[in-house]
Amino acid sequence: MTNLLPPQILTLLSQSVTRRHLKRDREGSHQQIWKDYFAEKCTYPVDYFHRRYRMRRELFICILNDVEAHDEYFIQKKDYCGQLGCSSIQKMTAVVCILAYGFSADHCDEYLKMGKTTAIESLKHFCDVVIALYEGQYLRSPNEQDIAHLLQVGEERGFPDYARNPAILAAHISSRLSSIRNKGTNAALRLDLMEHLWTQFGDQIV
């Protein structure tokens, strides 16, 4: 069979394919993130953290601790060469960049010193952990108490009259569905909703 292949193809097949190794300074990246956002005298104040991570630092740390306790994938380990892998903070930061800002997995390399495969695996593991830990409380459909609370908050903030009546509100939402099918609008609304949920319910997690 191989005799039927052109010489150029045979040459390529005979060559061993080696994976290119990049010397990423993962420890330096972790130390930089810690210095920027988590140290006692960090570079950026808490409002910068909230804006960039889309949540309070206390909430991030709370989720981080839960994730580490549930899935050892997020615990920092040494690789086969004895080098430390990415820390849990690096992996969680990559997850936030992907979920909150729509960054590609490859984008995480420059600041986090993390390969694309690690970023994707971190995202997969994080989603599995979030579903396992928080589905019953935060990923369920809203109950009457949740709706009443949201309507009360809306009334206090001066939302329009239709927001006070669930039936009218449902009809209004149905009429606006077509306006949020636009990809750009949908992405912006998703970010606003995520930030609103953390603001409203973050204190209940910590």
TrEMBL record:
<protein>
    <submittedName>
        <fullName>Uncharacterized protein</fullName>
    </submittedName>
</protein>
